[in-house]
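Structure first, sequence second, as always.
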C-alpha cells in the first residue's frame, strides 16, 4: 500500500496506542459522535404516488440531500442511523458501554450463530432483559441462514487464518482451472507442477514473495489435504445477517475491532481510519487504537458488567509469585495504568469451534480448555465427521475437527 493512499502510518498508530486511557476514551467518543451525527435517516414522500420511502444518507456537511424525484419531498429527517455490533465479548461490551453513555437511542445487534459460549448468550440475554442499568436493553438478536456445519460442508473448514484459508481455497480452484496465479506463487507452487499450469505472464515465480510478510509457502501442504479449506464461515454466519439488517434498517455499524488484533485490521485502519465513510460497506471502528490492556482497565475503572466466561480480571502475577497468592493491588482495587491485567478464564471468546490462530497457542490451547470447561461442546466439536466423495466433512455426530487438527499438528486432548 503506497503512503499517499493511507490516512495513517504505523507511527500514528504507535503514538495513539501510547496515549493514556482517558485520552483514548475522549477520542473514541468524538468518533462515535461524528458517526452518529453524520448518518441521517430520511423519510421521503412521493406526492404523485402517495408512497413513502426511507433512505440513509451521509450528511456530514449538513447541506446535501438524498437524490429525489421532482414529485418527492422530505417528510422528516433524523440523525443517528447507526447501531452497535454487540458480540457479548469484552471489547464490544466496552464499546456498547461508551455508546450507551452518550446516546439512549442506539440499538445493538447480536448475531446468534450458535457458535458462542453459553455464557456469552446468557450475558447478551441479560443485557436485553434490562438487568444492567448502564446498558441500553434495545438488543436485536439475529440468526444466520446457514448453520456452521452447513457452511463447512459447502465451503470448507476455517484453519490457520482468514488470509491463509482464502489463499488455499483460491489456489485449489486455480489448480482445477489449470491456471497459475498469485495464490499459487504465495504457496511456493511452480507453474510446471500439477500437470502444468497456464501462466499469463503476470505471476513470475522467480519474483518470489519470500520478502513479503504475506508469504504463506509453509502452508503449501494444505493443498493436498483431504478436506476443503475456506474462510467463508465468518461471512455466512456473522456478516451476512448483519448486512441484511443494515439493508433493511439503513443503519451503519459501530464495531469494536482494534488494529492490534491482526495485520489486516492494522492495514485497514491505516487506509481508512476509524470512521470509514467512503468504504464499500461504511463502518466505524472507534476503538481501533485501543489495546486489550485498555479494555481490561476500562472495565475495572468503570465497574462494567461483563460475561462470566472471562473469569475475574486481575493483575498478571510476577514470575516469582506464589501460586494462589492474592495480589495486594487486586485486594485493594487500587489499579494503576501501568499494571498488566489478565483474565482468569478465557482471554478471547468468539466462535467456540473456530480454528483460526489455534496453531499459535501454548498448551492448554482453546480446545484443551474447552474439554475441561464445556465437555458437551467439546465432544460435538472434536468428534464425528465422515468421508464423502473423498472429502472429510461434518456429520450428525459432530463437526470432526479432531481429524483436521491432527492434520495441522494441533493438540486437542
Amino acid at each position: 500500500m503506497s503512503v499517499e493512499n493511507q490516512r495513517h502510518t504505523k507511527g500514528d498508530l504507535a503514538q495513539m496506542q501510547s496515549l493514556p486511557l482517558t485520552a483514548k476514551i475522549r477520542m473514541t467518543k468524538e468518533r462515535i459522535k461524528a458517526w452518529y451525527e453524520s448518518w441521517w435517516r430520511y423519510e421521503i414522500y412521493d406526492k404523485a404516488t402517495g408512497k413513502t420511502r426511507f433512505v440513509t444518507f451521509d450528511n456530514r456537511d449538513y447541506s446535501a440531500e438524498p437524490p429525489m424525484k421532482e414529485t418527492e419531498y422530505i417528510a422528516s429527517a433524523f440523525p443517528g442511523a447507526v447501531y452497535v455490533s454487540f458480540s457479548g465479548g469484552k471489547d464490544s461490551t466496552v464499546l456498547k458501554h461508551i455508546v450507551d453513555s452518550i446516546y439512549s437511542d442506539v440499538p445493538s445487534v447480536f448475531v446468534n450463530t450458535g457458535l458462542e459460549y453459553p455464557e456469552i448468550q446468557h450475558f447478551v440475554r441479560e443485557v436485553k432483559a434490562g438487568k444492567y442499568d448502564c446498558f441500553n436493553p434495545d438488543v436485536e438478536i439475529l440468526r444466520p441462514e446457514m448453520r456452521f456445519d452447513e457452511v463447512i460442508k459447502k465451503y470448507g473448514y476455517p484453519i490457520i487464518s482468514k488470509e491463509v484459508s482464502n489463499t488455499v481455497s483460491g489456489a485449489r480452484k486455480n489448480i482445477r482451472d489449470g491456471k497459475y496465479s498469485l495464490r499459487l506463487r504465495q504457496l511456493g507452487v511452480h507453474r510446471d507442477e500439477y500437470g502444468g499450469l497456464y501462466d499469463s505472464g503476470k505471476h513470475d515465480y522467480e519474483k518470489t514473495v519470500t520478502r513479503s510478510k504475506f508469504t504463506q509457502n509453509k502452508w503449501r501442504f494444505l493443498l493436498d489435504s483431504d478436506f476443503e479449506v475456506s474462510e467463508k464461515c465468518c461471512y455466512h454466519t456473522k456478516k451476512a445477517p448483519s448486512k441484511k439488517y443494515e439493508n433493511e434498517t439503513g443503519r451503519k455499524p459501530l464495531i469494536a475491532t482494534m488494529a492490534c488484533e491482526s495485520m489486516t485490521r492494522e492495514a485497514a485502519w491505516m487506509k481508512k481510519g476509524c470512521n470509514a465513510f467512503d468504504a464499500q460497506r461504511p463502518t466505524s471502528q472507534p476503538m481501533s487504537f485501543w489495546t486489550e490492556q485498555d479494555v481490561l482497565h476500562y472495565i475495572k475503572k468503570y465497574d462494567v458488567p461483563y460475561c462470566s466466561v472471562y473469569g475475574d480480571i486481575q493483575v498478571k502475577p510476577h514470575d516469582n509469585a506464589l501460586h494462589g497468592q492474592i495480589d495486594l493491588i487486586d485486594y485493594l482495587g487500587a489499579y494503576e495504568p501501568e499494571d498488566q491485567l489478565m483474565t482468569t478464564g478465557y482471554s478471547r471468546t468468539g466462535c467456540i469451534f473456530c480454528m483460526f490462530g489455534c496453531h499459535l497457542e501454548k498448551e492448554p490451547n482453546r480446545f484443551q480448555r474447552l474439554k475441561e470447561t464445556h465437555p458437551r461442546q467439546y465432544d460435538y466439536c472434536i468428534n464425528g465427521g465422515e468421508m464423502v466423495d473423498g472429502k472429510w466433512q461434518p456429520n450428525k455426530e459432530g463437526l470432526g475437527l479432531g481429524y483436521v487438527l491432527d492434520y495441522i499438528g494441533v493438540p486437542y486432548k
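Margin note: The chain has a mean pLDDT of 91.
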